[in-house]
Structure formats: structure tokens, C-alpha cells
């Protein structure tokens, strides 16, 4: 009689090339399915760890799970700053006292987090947890392919003076300085809060917005900066390439009797023209430096130096989600825009519109 015994199938029973093909397919699954697959066995867990940690979204609800095993205390900004200042003791001879709280042996989670290439910080609590991890384990510091800042976090950094960079640095200034000093993102994604009801009610203080962006761009030198959900508060352009993802077009057209066929919609037609003049028009860079200097701390020698602020003359800018402008004759639109405000630099090939 034939045997009815069933043998357990094991992945390792397959030839090596088939094992690799299976795992390559699994590695392309969604994040939720990857978590399920990684719990299959130790071999799958080790193989899928790079994919699991390549892209991290950190927020208040999952920060303890993301950094589990590192022994973090999830301190507030003042507590973390105080811990960093505990330097000079037997256990913390360096200038960073937080590193004395690291585990004696490198935790396994440390190797997993080293695979992170894209990090999205969804709130200030997540940013604090990351800052504590970076200060406790300096080996986590380094380059990223992308860093995303949520609208609530970016608003907090701007409104609470992260770019004041005065001494003693505290609160958001200390948190911002820690991230700036220990991360190097190639791409910076900044989400904007919903716009105010009227054009005159700005989301950000323009001086503080300019200072924060000057710090981030001059220190990180990202290859690209993306602004997501931009309404009325158009950002200063400082990086090599800036992409502005605007809110949807208005259903209304701009006054064509004034602007002719190159009017654009009522939301973007005038706003983008104004933005371009502020970027490339006469005295644009001087006005930006003046705004940055307006919030300077005269007693702080480490404040932003004007020479470190990139000039828009060497930048490229792309406006996305603007079908009303993408459909226009670009050269005519730009000619009309700078008719009375001649640009201070060659803008050929530096400005583009996408639907």
C-alpha cells in the first residue's frame, strides 16, 4: 500500500535559484504583507529585513514598536537636551551624554534600522523619538534617500523658532538642530498645512519660514525639495531643484480681458506669476537675505551666514498640479510675467509646469 505520510515543505528544499526568485517576489509585496511574510521563519525574516526597514513611517502610535530593543526612554525635548548635556562623566566623556545610555552590546534592531533609506516623520513625537535614537546611537546618523516632514511637524518647527538657532538652544530649536546635524537626505519632502481662508491670512510667518528653509537647505544640500499641498504660502526656492505641488486649480479663469489667453485659473494665474517674480525678479536674493537677517540673533556667532544661503539664480523650479498653466504657451506666459520685472538671471530651462 502506498505511503500516505506528508512531508513538510521547506523553502530550503528548493534549488538556490528558485529560493532567490521566491524571495525577490515576496520582497515586492506591500508593507503589511511583508510583515506577515517576515514572521514565517528566521530565514525569511533575515532576508526581508532590508525591505521591511527601507521605508519607515514613524508616528506617535508606532514609535515604540519602530525603536523597540534600543532601550529608549522617549524623552521630551527638554529632558533629551538635559541628557545630552550630561557630558564629562566617566560614562559620558564626549559632548553627547545621551550616548552613555546606549546598550552595552549593539541591539539587533540597530542593524535593521541601518537599512532605512526613506523616513517619514508624522508628528513632533516621532521626530523626538528619532532624535533620541540618533543621539543614543550615533551610528544611525547618515545619508537618506528621502526625509518627509508632515504638515504638523513642519508647522511646529517654523512657529516655535527652530531656525532661531540662538543659544541656549531648546525645545524645537534643539530638536531641529539634532535632525539637521545627524541626517543627510537627498530628497526633502515638506507637507504644507491647509491654507487659510483668505490670501492675506498666511500660514507661516514669512521671516521664520525663510530662516527654517535656509537652515535645512544650506546644511543638508538636498538634490531636490518637494513642497506638497501648497496653497497661498509659496515657499522660497533655495535648493538645486524645487517641486511645488499646488492645490487643485480653481474652477474660475483669471480675467482674460486683462491677461488674454495666458490667464490661467484664478487660483494659480496670479499666484505663480507673483512667486516667479519674487524668485527671479530684481533684488530677489537681497530681499530673501534681508528677511533671513530680520530674525537673526546678533549675539549668536553660529547664526545663518548670508553667504551660505543658496541663490535662486542657480535653481530650477517645477510647478505640479497646474493644468491651467501647463496648457498655456510657456514662453508667452513667462514673457508676460517678467514684462515689467526683468529677471536678474537666465531663466531658460529653469521653469516648468505640469498638470
TrEMBL record:
Domain (F-box) ranges: 11-56
Naturally occurring in which organism (per UniProt): Vanrija pseudolonga
CDD domains per record: F-box_SF
SUPFAM superfamilies associated with the record: F-box domain (SSF81383)
Source taxon at top rank: Eukaryota
Coiled coil spans: none
Pfam families in alphabetical order: F-box-like
Protein name, per record: F-box domain-containing protein
Amino acid at each position: 500500500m502506498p505511503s500516505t505520510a506528508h512531508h513538510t515543505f521547506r523553502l530550503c528544499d528548493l534549488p538556490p535559484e528558485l529560493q532567490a526568485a521566491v524571495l525577490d517576489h515576496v520582497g515586492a509585496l506591500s508593507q503589511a504583507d511583508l510583515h506577515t511574510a517576515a514572521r514565517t521563519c528566521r530565514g525569511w525574516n533575515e532576508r526581508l529585513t532590508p525591505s521591511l526597514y527601507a521605508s519607515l513611517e514613524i508616528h506617535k502610535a508606532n514609535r515604540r514598536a519602530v525603536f523597540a530593543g534600543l532601550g529608549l526612554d522617549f524623552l521630551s525635548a527638554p529632558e533629551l537636551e538635559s541628557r545630552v548635556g550630561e557630558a564629562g562623566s566617566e560614562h559620558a566623556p564626549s559632548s553627547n551624554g545621551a550616548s552613555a545610555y546606549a546598550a552595552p552590546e549593539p541591539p539587533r534592531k540597530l542593524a535593521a534600522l541601518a537599512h532605512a533609506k526613506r523616513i517619514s516623520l508624522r508628528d513632533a513625537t516621532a521626530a523626538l523619538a528619532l532624535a533620541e535614537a540618533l543621539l543614543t546611537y550615533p551610528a544611525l546618523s547618515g545619508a537618506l534617500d528621502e526625509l518627509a516632514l508632515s504638515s504638523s511637524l513642519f508647522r511646529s518647527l517654523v512657529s516655535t523658532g527652530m531656525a532661531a538657532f540662538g543659544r541656549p538652544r531648546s525645545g524645537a530649536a534643539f530638536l531641529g538642530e539634532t535632525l539637521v546635524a545627524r541626517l543627510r537626505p537627498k530628497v526633502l519632502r515638506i507637507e504644507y498645512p491647509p491654507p487659510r481662508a483668505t490670501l492675506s491670512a498666511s500660514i507661516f510667518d514669512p521671516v521664520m519660514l525663510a530662516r527654517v528653509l535656509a537652515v535645512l537647505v544650506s546644511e543638508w544640500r538636498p538634490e531636490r525639495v518637494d513642497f506638497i499641498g501648497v496653497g497661498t504660502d509659496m515657499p522660497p526656492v533655495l535648493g538645486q531643484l524645487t517641486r511645488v505641488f499646488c492645490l487643485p486649480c480653481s474652477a474660475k479663469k483669471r480675467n482674460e480681458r486683462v491677461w488674454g489667453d495666458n490667464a490661467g485659473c484664478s487660483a494659480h494665474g496670479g499666484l505663480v506669476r507673483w512667486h516667479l517674480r519674487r524668485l527671479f525678479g530684481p533684488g530677489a536674493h537681497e530681499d530673501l537675505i534681508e528677511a533671513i537677517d530680520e530674525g537673526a540673533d546678533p549675539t549668536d556667532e553660529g547664526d545663518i551666514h548670508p553667504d551660505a544661503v543658496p541663490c535662486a539664480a542657480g535653481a530650477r523650479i517645477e510647478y505640479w498640479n497646474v493644468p491651467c498653466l501647463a496648457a498655456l504657451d510657456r514662453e508667452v506666459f513667462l514673457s508676460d510675467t517678467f514684462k515689467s520685472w526683468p529677471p536678474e538671471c537666465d531663466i531658460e530651462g529653469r521653469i516648468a509646469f505640469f498638470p
